[in-house]
Amino acid sequence: REEILIPMAADDRRNGDSTNHNHRDPKKPRLSEFLTESDIRSEFAHHHTGVARVNNGSFGCCPSSVLDAQREWQLRFLRQPDEFYFNGLRRGLLASRAVISDLINADDVDEVSLLDNATTAAAIVLQRVGRCFSEGRYQKEDTVVMFHCAFQSVKKSIQAYVSRVGGSTVEVRLPFPVSSNDEIVSAFREGLKKGRANGRTVRLAIIDHITSMPCVLMPVRELVKVCREEGVEEVFVDAAHAIGSVKVDVKEIGADYYVSNLHKWFFCPPSIAFFYCKKRSSELDVHHPVVSHEFGNGLAIESAWIGTRDYSSQLVVPSVMEFVKRFEGGIDGIMERNHDEAVRMGLMLCSAWGTNLGSPPEMCVGMVMIGLPSKLCVESDDDAVKLRAYLRVHRSVEVPVYFLGLRDGEEGVKDKDSGVITAYVRISRQVYNETEDYERLRDAITELVKDQRTCQNLPPFDIFRCNNKALEEEEPEPLAKVPEMGEQTEKPIRLLNFVSEEQLEESKKERGERVEDGTFQRDRALYEILKENKDKKDAEFNERFKHRPPKALDEDETEFLDKLEMSKKEYERQLADDDEQQIRSFHAAVAARSATPQEPEEAALPPPAPPTIEPKTTGKRNSATRPFNTIIRVKPQPKKVKATEEEKKAISGAPEPLQTGLALVSYSDESEGDD
Amino acid sequence: MKNNKLKTIPLSTNPMASLSPPEEEAAAAAASFHHRRSKRYSSSTTNGLAAESVPDKRHKISLPPSFISSSEIESEFSHHDPAFARINNGSFGSCPSSVIAAQRDWQLRFLRQPDRFFFDELKPNISASRAAIKRLINAEHDDEVSLVDNATTAAAIVLQQTAWAFREGRFDRGDAVVMLHYAFGSVKKSVEAYVSRSGGEVIEMQLPFPVNSAEEIVNRFRTGLALGKANGRKVRLALIDHVTSMPSVVIPIKELVKICREEGVDQVFVDAAHGIGCVDVDMKEIGADFYTSNLHKWFFAPPSVAFLYCKRSGAGGNLHHPVVSHEYGNGLAVESTWVGTRDYSAQLVVPSILEFVNRFEGGIDGIKKRNHESVIEMGEMLVKSWGTQLGCPPEMCPSMVMVGLPVCLGVSSETDAVRLRNLLRERFSIEIPTYFRAPGEGETDSITGYVRISYQVYNKPEEYHRLKDAINELVRDGFKCSSLTD
What we know:
Chain B: It comes from Brassica oleracea. The complex is a heterodimer of chains A (675) and B (486). Chain A is an alpha/beta fold and 675 residues long. Helices cover 49% and strands 8% of the residues of chain A. In chain A, helix 4 runs antiparallel to helix 5. Chain B is built from 19 helices and twelve strands. In chain B, helix 7 (97-112) runs antiparallel to helix 8 (114-137) and helix 17 runs parallel beside helix 19. Chain B starts with a helix and ends in a 10-residue tail after the last helix.
């Protein structure tokens, strides 16, 4: 049962949860209450249905109430731009900055500037460093120290602004998998020592608050302290993932510059980041690279006008606060539950796969790295790319895959089959995620292993063929399920004879109405297969395709999948065609959507066999010296609530896959047992 | 179609001669508006305007059977505040609802499944936008066209490159960058931030205003260049506006670029914030090294998107977007397609904009031509009523015109101009920028205040009449700017 707290602002004091639904229209905005699961679903109704989106970390998400607020701002500008520019914009931006300033415990709102993203902040900081070099204030060969897993854009910015003018760079290798903060701190100390070798000065240290890939929550306070002790001139914390993910207190952290995106974990639309600049730094020479008439008025003011553009995403921060207040505990509550749930799901995957987490739970956030079974034989970045694409295209799971190359002499961590773990997935957990999302990932991997698939013999990426194959394999299964769902029993044969297009049309018509039972996923697949033939001939697509500029491949985790565009392109295009149709039907279906949208798919997969693996893995995990006990301790009340809810949901909503429900229970029991 | 249009025409009353009460006058003005439009529609079909301007055959084929009607135009811009006479398209532009809807689709497509959008849709669709622009501006290669936020960003990109050349010793300290005195404020600041700081000398060329002929500008420019080259200095970059913003004048850009070439200027950067949709933009004819134009001002794009053209044979390879991502080093066009996670939707709607403008006779060129004619007509109406003059001859006006204000208003400082603008907004609901021109030495009773009127498809004559009446009322009441305070 969800506990209902009523924020102070609310004057109509209503309590009770279930009774409330009986006498009030649930569609009405009930700002004084917490969001229900169906509220959350409708806030994120624009998400692609049927995709297990366990990758909030890459691009974040934005609820529709915030999108609405953004549109209002956009319209206000378009309605009368001059008026908005002179009277609305600055005030609106200031309001956003004030909210953030409070949230991050800055001394003064002037310390907070709004930018597009962390990449822009990196350009600002590094441009400054570059000027110091070229104007002779820094000596050639003075250094910038950073972690090797710093975001690719940051590395490129260093190349563009610092290396070009003679600065040198020291990259500290982040130990991974990592078991304690001390490992990181001592590696960093080593790096600083290297940076100061030969009488050089370390001019800037770039520290990630949460690294992106592999994902680790860094001991940022300690690292900043080390920098101060070692006389590093300036410290820039790149916290692209931080706000909404961990508690951010810039005073405690004590860096000179701190940037965090708000569109990743703080529910903002793309794109907005705040850039904190210690007050004394504002007298320093920090400027926005796009120079307007505000040049020289301080970074916050400079950033508030960089030419005519759409500032709406920077104006919605107060609306985001409204949104997060509708969750128990506000953003802190969300953060805590995301962390606990991500860890719980991570452990569930570990035990199913017989692998380990990439870092102990207290070094995880709403993102967790989980080792993949060694039997998958991920041997290169390309393999990781392939696997990720496979999961997206064949399994509708969106999750980034990380390849961990071993260096000479490294032994690596072994999984239950005594093979070295060479790859990790990074799962994210955000309010819209459900346990089924992770179960789908679990089953996809388990099944690959069971089928003795490796990255070298994944189904080939001829999408058309793959899809047919998938159909052949999976079609009979759901067929059996359909009658059991208690619907549409009159035409079970339909799917077997899917050869004709009329039948397809017909079935689509019929099934449009019960989209929410999850079977429509299947329809979509059918529909796509047939449609693909037509699309293949689509000349316009081919023309567009030609316009693609040559792609540059690098290690950037979000970039590397580019390689597979060729093959995926057509498949995805169909999906896009289907999108509109889906959006429409989804909206209609959302309210009534049952709790078991993916059942037939789950059912289509071979039942996982966790019980046999479990005991083994538990032992494995403990032997991997991970202080797992702590995880469990962090686990708060609501999680238990959620688990039972989900369990209930799984059981009541799904007549058939009791198995899944049981598995779920057993997992949570198991982690409870660790307590 | 023609018949429909004609039906709306009552036999014409001349609004300019009319001194009738405002309501009747508005009606008359509206009538005249329709009359004028339909006349133009029918006349321009005969001169083959439509054929030459459609940039892309595919779009031509998808033309609706008839051109957009005035009520359709009204509904495309129904989000505009109806209470306001918005005769200032030049400052922030405008965006029709069909394009806004297209933009929202793109936004939603990103939000729906961001990873997929990023990997599969973003790049090819930005490329499609770039290709469309390339055809529109007659560039040689797609690679020459990059999409950025706005002209301010483009200026930062070009000037950063200049700054590097100074820092790395390819240009000598004290080499010159020349620019027009009327360059946009942001660009001037960019020059300060990037060029002055790296050791470049900045020379501003004073331009006459009001202007009587293009020769005046060309002559001043020659003088300025000569100054730049004094003492054996090299002029490394000439920064020329295509249409100056305030005061607004079309600069004879082709002649100036030619002069730059003759005089051995290294690079020419044309800042055409008001370029596309407002004046003719043909890269091969203009021949500059860099050319940037906003699309959200006169090309119906939502805020904000601009293109930056970099001639392939020029120094384009050294250009970098100041926000550096993993695409660094892959050429400016590619670098600009990813400058971190952000909303790229404004850059993706270019094809939708083409669809919109092709619903007008003659496409964007037809729109441009009619806007120009209408704004001149309105400008002349105003100067006749106020007894003043235009800031430059009609052929040097784009879709904006500088109109002199009655001397008796006593605009005697920039503050006065700003206050007058606020007054017009607050008391008369008119949105119009004002300009203060300091009187030259020995001038008495010269016009010191100007307004800049714009004309875009959604404008109607009664809006300009409202401005006319407002100023006349102020004059009648003996109003002086000196009586205004904040």
